[in-house]
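I hope you will forgive my troubling you with a question about protein structure. The record follows directly beneath this note:
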Amino acid sequence: MSLTLIDGLYDVNKAMKVLTTSVKLHRIKSGLTTFSLLLIGLSCRKSSMNNSYSILLENHSTRPVGFYIATGGTYGTLYPDTSLPKNKSIDIISRLDVNKTFYSYSSLRWDNVFKTLPKDTLSVFIFDSDTLAKYPMEIISQQYKILKRYDLSISDLRKLNWAVPYPASSEMENMKMFPSYP
């Protein structure tokens, strides 16, 4: 920004008007840029939400639990194999505190995930968090130290509205689980 020279003197008033106009234009441009980024961000968020599908795990018990959703992978298992993973890394077994919900996301629709499974069944294992802290996975696996295992079909998950509670709700009375309901 330069000041205007009039008769060898700088016209401060004219320079201030130019500066004020420049600042206003900058604010408008900045506001438009922020607004544009906000719109882009919202459209990206909406897009990513439309491409993300979740199953909720809800802990309604009085103690923290650990859980494992058997979707295969390097260390995992798939139903009808109901053996436990050989490793209790954070990627395999996660902690769920009292009255908390965990969202298990998939970029694929769960209908499509189920099509890749050997059976129309997804196993969800629930562990006492103290058991996970106290014993190595080898002992947990050998002695099958689980609180509950749900063997859920896609139809079961739809009935539960994609929210799997622990302990089992009355809606789950006729669903496959070990030990059996309740």
